[in-house]
TrEMBL record:
This is Alpha/beta hydrolase. The keyword Transport does not apply. Residues 1-22 form the signal peptide. InterPro entries: AB_hydrolase_Est10, AB_hydrolase_fold. The chain crosses the membrane at residues 319-339, 351-375, 387-410, 422-443. GO terms for molecular function: carboxylic ester hydrolase activity. Keywords: Membrane, Signal, Transmembrane, Transmembrane helix.
Length: 446
């Protein structure tokens, strides 16, 4: 569930801790700090042209995408805008109240507005040309901020997503795995079972956030941009959804722009959009700064690429998987401990007791690795499968074979003592439960 920030305390602006200094690029860099509504102090940098004169200039606050890379991640974009005469604030995203498993878009929106107020009070900023620039996850946050404050005079987004974070994440997994040459069960497992399980376990914050209602309430001028080679934001569908929401809300001052030859963050690409080069196009920020001065300005726009439809999720229907896996582990180890070495079923039983937890743990470790790298690093691909996944599938087949051997021999030896039959029966049930789990997670599928 989304946690909505309820703290209504007035924002307290802190004074800048260091003096401004001229950067070697011809820009002036000023370190600043400001305080969010919940008292968290945020630190940032304001970049301006070193020879800007006395006239007031437009200002933007830049919101980064998912994660917390720090203000340096957006420094190239900020410098490009500053060279075009825009006073630009970049800041370190909060760490208190924001992590890989906990985030609150409403709270992040309040942080952005706190930064905007800092710029508004600067003597070199024109409050009538003050807005937000947002990348990826930041573009889920920016419309919320725009709906709360008249200080936001315009929005510029890059790689905005028009669907829920869960659906977008699953779509991107499929996109990157297909690009790596991965086919078969693993893309389905990542797009469906893995995403649903993280939701059910409460590890996917804001998974069901629907951005469309917030966009429908935005009244400020909007420049929404996507790279033609964006492999993360479902650009075709997102551009249609966001543009449609703005139309339905009566916003007549919005521009939908698809930028040819660029990736998710509008950078140059040498890998058809599947890379993150630091290089900006030579004309970066030319159109954007002209648009700030005249939001009615338009430019030629590329067509978005064809893309598969993202999945739709309903949380809660896979929660049984986790409890089933835990049960399998407990029964497997219990079977290993209770079956004696001299039992006529000893060897198959021991193999099953060992293979079951090894396969389970190894599978979770590899899938966790794919989660951490957002499925962008798979390892060598053999027969349409990453080598680690292929080995896991072989382990799963061996585990099921051991389970069949245990079950077959158990049925043949009805002269076992009752206690022994119960113990080995539990281990046989473990094999059956493992097989169900392995099918669910794609290990026994092509």
């Amino acid at each position: 569930m989304r946690r909505i920030a309820t703290v209504l305390a007035a924002l307290l602006l802190a004074s800048t801790p260091t003096a401004a200094h001229a950067a070697p690029t011809g820009l002036t860099s000023t370190e600043v700090s400001f305080t969010g509504n919940d008292g968290v102090v945020l630190h940032g940098t304001v970049l301006t042209a070193a020879s800007g004169g006395a006239a007031r200039r437009p200002g933007i606050v830049m919101l980064e995408g998912a994660g917390n890379r720090g203000r340096s991640y957006l420094r190239p974009e900020a410098e490009a805008y500053a060279r075009h005469g825009v006073v630009t604030l970049i800041y370190d995203k909060r760490t208190e109240g924001y992590s890989a498993v906990h985030r609150d878009f409403s709270l992040l929106a309040d942080d952005a507005l706190a930064g905007l107020r800092l710029l508004r009070d600067r003597p070199d900023v024109d409050p009538s040309h003050l807005g937000l620039w947002a990348l990826s996850e930041g573009a889920w946050v920016a419309p919320l901020a725009a709906n709360r404050s008249a200080d936001v005079r315009f929005l510029i987004t890059v790689g905005a997503v028009g669907i829920t974070p869960a659906a977008q994440t699953a779509w991107a997994y499929g996109t990157y795995l297909r690009h790596a040459g991965v086919r078969g069960a693993l893309p389905r497992t990542m797009r469906s079972t893995v995403v649903r399980t993280t939701i059910d376990l409460g590890l996917f914050a804001e998974s069901d956030f629907d951005p469309v209602p917030a966009w429908q309430r935005v009244r400020q001028p909007v420049l929404a941009q996507w790279g033609r080679l964006d492999r993360d934001a479902v650009p075709g569908l997102s551009s249609r959804l966001i543009g449609g929401a703005l139309d339905r809300g009566g916003n007549t001052s919005h521009t939908i722009r698809i930028v040819a030859g660029t990736n998710h963050n509008l950078h140059r690409t040498a890998a058809d959009g599947f890379d993150r080069l630091p290089d900006l196009p030579a004309d970066y920020a030319d159109f954007e700064t002209a648009w700030i001065a005249d939001p009615a300005r338009t430019a030629p726009s590329a067509s978005p690429a064809d893309e598969p439809a993202p999945p739709v999720f309903a949380a809660g229907d896979h929660a049984w998987v986790s409890s089933g896996v835990v049960l399998a582990l407990l029964v497997a180890f219990a079977g290993f401990l209770v079956v004696g070495r001299r039992s006529r079923l000893g060897r198959p039983a021991r193999w099953l007791a060992v293979l079951t937890p090894v396969t389970l743990v190894a599978t979770y470790l590899y899938l966790m690795f794919l989660l951490v790298v957002a499925a962008k690093v798979t390892g060598p691909v053999v027969l349409g499968r990453p080598l680690p996944w292929l080995l896991l599938q072989l382990l799963a087949v061996a585990t099921v074979a051991a389970a069949v051997a245990v079950a077959t021999t158990w049925r043949r030896h009805r002269d076992l003592a009752t206690a022994g039959r119960i113990r080995l029966g539990l281990l046989t049930a473990t094999g059956a439960l493992f097989a169900v789990w392995a099918v669910q997670w794609g290990l026994l599928l092509p």
